[in-house]
Amino acid sequence: MFENKSRTELNEFGEFGLINFISKNIKTYHASTIKGIGDDAAVIDNGDNYILLSTDMLIESVHFDLGYTPLKHLGYKSVITNLSDIAAMNGTPTHIVVSIAMSNRFSIEAIEELYDGMMVACDVYKIDLVGGDTTSNPKGLAISIAVYGTVAKDKITYRNTVKEGDLLVVTGDLGAPYLGLNILEREKRIFIEQPNFQPELEGNDYIIQRQLKPEARLDMIKLLDDLKIVPSAMIDISDGLASDLFQLASASQVGFTVYEDKLPIDPQTYQRAIDLGIDPTIAVLNGGEDYELMFTIPQSDYETLKKEFDFSVIGHAVAKQEGMHLISKSNIKHKIMAQGWENY
Amino acid sequence: MFENKSRTELNEFGEFGLINFISKNIKTYHASTIKGIGDDAAVIDNGDNYILLSTDMLIESVHFDLGYTPLKHLGYKSVITNLSDIAAMNGTPTHIVVSIAMSNRFSIEAIEELYDGMMVACDVYKIDLVGGDTTSNPKGLAISIAVYGTVAKDKITYRNTVKEGDLLVVTGDLGAPYLGLNILEREKRIFIEQPNFQPELEGNDYIIQRQLKPEARLDMIKLLDDLKIVPSAMIDISDGLASDLFQLASASQVGFTVYEDKLPIDPQTYQRAIDLGIDPTIAVLNGGEDYELMFTIPQSDYETLKKEFDFSVIGHAVAKQEGMHLISKSNIKHKIMAQGWENY
Question: Which value does ipTM take for this structure?
Answer without folding.
Answer: 0.91
